[in-house]
Amino acid sequence: MAYTKRSDGRKFEQAREIKAKVGVVPNADGSAMFSFGDTVAIAAVYGPHQLHPQHLQNPEKGILRCNYNMMSFSVSDRIRPGPSKRSTEISKITEWALNKSVMIDEFPNTVIDVHIMIPQADASTRCAGINAASMALAHAGIPMRDIATSVSIGKIDKTLVVDVDKAEEDYEGGEGPTDIALTFLNSIDEISHIQLDGKISTKELKEAVKLGREATKKIYEIQKKALKQAVEGSR
Which of 137, 204, 208, 212 has the fewest other C-beta atoms within 10 Å? Predict the structure, then answer.
């Protein structure tokens, strides 16, 4: 049976309700909260500070180090706390997605630590985490080429949808689900990250990228608005 209607009533090209705020972790150099519906990500940035041990330092540029972690209570079935294969993978993916946006070469021999916590999960957690992390980096005053903006595009059976939720992630009808996580640098029109889980044709992938680009343009404006409000509030 074809996927013709989303369970939460959204249009296929519509993301869930988005909330964004910076300055949510007082003792961090920069921090942010970003949510897609019931998926919530909180990011805290510390640094740049000198990297130890010294032999890991790079005299030409700094290092961006990301740590992604889903809290044990973030889903209805409690998960084991601490690092996992999945969290390690998403931590590296987040680094790759953000590295193109951060002007890390301005900070030789240093490290910028980005900690991403998921207190509540309903799919698309890596995208929410990237969005929160990018805002937190900007809030910390780290020089950036652009804010990174991420969204998941799903192919549910044969239908492309924006911002996959848990029900769609677990869809079992027809051809099943395909999840494509995309990260854009909108003002310079670049893709910094694309990750595909499932099967999709070349034509459908091009359509998915187009959908993602349009969706992230709207998300990007929300990110910028949250940062602008923080600046105006501090005056």
Answer: 204
Residue 8 lies in a domain: no
Task: For residues 8 and 164, give the distance between their C-alpha atoms in angstroms, rounded to a whole number.
Answer: 11
CA distance 180 to 191: 13
The Cα–Cα gap between 38 and 17 comes to: 9
Q: Based on the structure, what is the number of domains in the chain?
A: 1
More confident residue, 169 or 131: 131
Judge if pTM exceeds 0.90. yes
Cα dihedral sign, 162-99-107-58:
positive
Task: Show the domain range for 210.
Answer: 18-233
Contact 208, 153 (CB under 8 A): yes
| 10 belongs to a structural domain | no
Task: At 203, list the tokens.
Answer: 């034509």
Q: What is the DSSP-derived secondary structure letter of residue 191?
A: E
Do the beta carbons of residue 147 and residue 138 sit within 8 Å? yes
Rg of the chain taking only CA atoms, in angstroms:
18
CATH number of the domain residue 171 falls in: 3.30.230.70
Instruction: Tell me, yes or no, whether 64 lies in a domain.
Output: yes
Give domain status of residue 3, yes or no. Answer: no
- pLDDT tens digits for 72-102? 766 655 556 666 788 999 999 999 999 999 9
